[in-house]
């Protein structure tokens, strides 16, 4: 029988890492429970929220342990979720010792995100593609490509400086809108609405929406509610950013700009 | 139409990279994204309306994601998040705030309600897709497993 504390630490740390990278609540809960069970904890309780984990283990024994972790909502990293899922599956089959598991967890935590030189063009390509799909011409997509890259660059820079999420959303969408309008005003003959829509697609709360639904559907109403609110607020922030930028342009042009 | 589907696959994949989809799943995520868009366009062509089209597309996407997750032994979130990106009503949010600023309130309201309707039907589509029991998908996973002979039991396909 292993020490309670070690089991608790490993399982909760895995849960924390999952939660931080955007896994659903039930997956986090199940992973923590499965890992505890696999290492022989008999009596355990786990409670997971969107931004916290609470767990106790072996309450009736001498070495009872409890743990609370505060987990801020982070950026989504599906690769880490998949890797941890695989790790937990191996732990359940008993092919992975606590030490080995800890090492792999550490490895997963350290594993680097993709470099900027891949992320930024990828976002540009995505923006250009959606601009085309939503009714833009190939010529419009070209500018969406650059606006998408600009946006991703801005998002990465903001993340490094820990700017609040809402401010980032408002500024990001405003920036793309201004970019689109400037290109339009200088007479490039683009459909500025399509260009802007393509540019702001990355900000859309699609992921938050999906996770919110999955949480709600699994009966985690509180966590689902938190994510749903996150999605709605993000949508509102985008609307505010776009609206403010258009208004500013209108005022500058004295109402003469043919927007 | 075919060009559009290919472009949808490309864009979904491009955004998938931003969410760090595991490299081994790039192809499948792109296929799922393309599938979602194909269903959406097909329904639009049959004049289903944007909301109903989103419902069907989301439903098909979710089912495809669950099948893929059982077969590929990956969390279904990986495929679902990538696929759903092509359906999110981005233009709705833009036009709502655009008309609001332009003081065309009736149009803004109409767009706003439309956006909510589409978001709601995407939700419904996903919920219907998730409602099917997991065993059916586990069964699918086992079939492919037998082909690969003697791989581990599927603990959670979702």
Descriptive overview:
- The complex is a heterodimer of chains A (259) and B (158).
- Chain A contains ten helices and three strands; from the N terminus they run ααβββαααααααα.
- The radius of gyration of chain A is 23 Å and the shape is elongated.
- Chain A folds into two domains: 4-110, no CATH class; 116-252, no CATH class.
- In chain A, helix 5 packs antiparallel against helix 6 (138-160) and helix 7 packs antiparallel against helix 8.
- Helices cover 67% and strands 7% of the residues of chain A.
- Chain A has a three-stranded antiparallel beta sheet with strand order 1-2-3, covered by helices on one side.
- With 158 residues, chain B is mainly α.
- Chain B has one domain (2-88, 121-148).
- Chain B is built from seven helices and no strands.
- The two termini of chain B are 32 Å apart.
- The chains are: A mainly alpha (259), B mainly alpha (158).
- The interface between A and B is large, with 63 and 51 residues.
Structure described in brief:
The complex is a heterodimer of chains A (259) and B (158). Chain A contains ten helices and three strands, in the order H-H-E-E-E-H-H-H-H-H-H-H-H.
Comma- or semicolon-separated keywords:
heterodimer; A: about 260 residues; mainly alpha; 2 domains; three-stranded antiparallel β-sheet; 3 strands; B: about 160 residues; 7 helices; elongated; disordered C terminus
The N- and C-terminal alpha carbons of chain A lie at a distance of: 71 Å
What oligomeric state best describes the polypeptide chains here? Answer: heterodimer
The largest pleated sheet of chain A is described as:
3 strands, antiparallel
Low-pLDDT runs of 5+ residues of chain A are: none
Order of helices and strands of chain B: HHHHHHH
Which range best describes the helical content of chain A: under 10%, 10-25%, 25-40%, 40-55%, 55-70% or over 70%?
55-70%
Enumerate how many helices of chain B there are, as a single number: 7
How far apart the termini of chain B lie comes to 32 Å
Helix content of chain B: over 70%
**Overall morphology of chain A:** elongated
Helix-strand topology string of chain A: HHEEEHHHHHHHH
Number of separate structural domains of chain A: 2
Tally of individual helices of chain A = 10
Overall geometric form of chain B: elongated
């Amino acid at each position: 029988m292993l020490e309670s504390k070690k089991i608790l630490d490993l399982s909760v740390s895995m849960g924390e890492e999952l939660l931080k990278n955007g896994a659903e609540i039930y997956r986090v809960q199940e992973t923590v429970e499965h890992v505890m069970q696999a290492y022989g904890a008999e009596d355990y309780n786990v409670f997971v929220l969107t931004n916290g984990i609470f767990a106790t283990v072996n309450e009736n024994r001498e070495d009872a342990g409890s743990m609370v972790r505060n987990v801020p909502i982070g950026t989504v990293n599906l690769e880490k979720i998949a890797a941890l899922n695989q790790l937990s599956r191996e732990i359940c089959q008993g092919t992975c010792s606590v030490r080995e598991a800890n090492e792999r967890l550490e490895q997963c935590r350290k594993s680097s995100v993709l470099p900027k030189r891949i992320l930024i063009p990828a976002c540009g390509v995505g923006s250009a593609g959606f601009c085309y799909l939503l009714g833009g011409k190939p010529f419009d997509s070209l500018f969406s490509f650059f606006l998408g890259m600009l946006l991703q660059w801005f998002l990465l820079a903001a993340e490094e400086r820990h700017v609040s999420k809402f401010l980032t959303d408002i500024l990001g969408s405003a920036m793309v809108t201004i970019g689109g309008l400037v290109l339009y005003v200088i007479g490039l003959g683009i459909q500025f609405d399509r260009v802007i829509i393509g540019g702001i697609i990355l900000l859309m709360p699609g992921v938050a929406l999906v996770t919110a639904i999955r949480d709600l559907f699994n009966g985690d109403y509180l966590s689902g509610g938190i994510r749903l609110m996150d999605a709605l607020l993000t949508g509102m922030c985008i609307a505010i950013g776009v609206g403010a930028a258009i208004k500013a342009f209108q005022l500058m042009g004295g109402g003469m700009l043919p927007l | 139409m075919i060009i559009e589907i290919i472009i949808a696959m490309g864009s979904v994949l491009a955004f998938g990279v931003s969410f760090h989809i595991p490299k081994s799943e790039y192809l499948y995520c792109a296929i799922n994204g393309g599938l979602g868009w194909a269903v959406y366009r097909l329904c639009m062509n049959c004049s289903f309306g944007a909301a109903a089209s989103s419902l069907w597309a989301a439903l098909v996407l979710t089912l495809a994601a669950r099948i893929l997750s059982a077969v590929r032994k990956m969390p279904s979130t990986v495929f679902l998040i990538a696929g759903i990106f092509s359906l999110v009503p981005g233009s709705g949010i833009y036009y709502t705030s655009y008309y609001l600023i332009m003081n065309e309130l009736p149009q803004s309201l109409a767009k706003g309600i439309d956006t909510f309707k589409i978001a709601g039907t995407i939700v419904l589509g996903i919920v219907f897709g998730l409602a099917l029991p997991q065993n059916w998908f586990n069964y699918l996973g086992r079939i492919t497993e037998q082909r690969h002979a003697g791989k581990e039991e599927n603990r959670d396909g979702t």
